Amino acid sequence: MFSKSDKFPNPAYLFSASLWGQNIKFHEISGLKAEMGFKEVRSGGSNNQVYKIPTVASYGDVTFKKGIISAGDSLSSTMDLFRKVKELLHINAPYSLLNKSIGNIIINLNNDKGNSVCTWALVNPSLLSWEISTMNAQNNELAFETLVFSCSEIISSVY
Fold first, then answer.
1. Could you tell me the residue range of the domain that residue 122 belongs to?
2. Burial 53-85 (b: 16+ CB within 10 A, else e)
3. Separation between Cα atoms, residue 57 and residue 15, nearest integer Å
4. In a domain, 6, yes or no
5. What is the pLDDT of residue 130?
6. 83 or 24, greater pLDDT
7. Fewer beta carbons within 10 Å, N or C terminal of the chain?
């Protein structure tokens, strides 16, 4: 059987995220991904050897999905999030507003005691899109908003 010293992976549902310095509850976060680009180089006189030389790292777009909550609820951060997203996506906004710093986005994976076991920091994030889920009177579904960010780097820390 298992002993107390056996380690198990942490469940993926125990996570938190911090945007604009606020801890915001999300239903789902996806897209944490890093890929290394490479260039193929053939060896000097040998035609049967190809070396893959690393070039530059690229990072996936990170998607945050959250339920929409009314302003009267205790989780009033939703309305503040709406306001900030609207500022970032405002069509007539000056260029300086559209490119203002969001600050790093921090994502924590927590253990069953609520302590952070792994952290990812999205460096220099930019809001790519904001979407509200489809509203359909024939379905009994929750309303969600989806935010998609790109970033210049993802820094991970394991505790």
1. 15-158
2. eeeeeebeebbbbbeebeeeeeeebbeebeeeb
3. 25
4. no
5. 80
6. 24
7. N
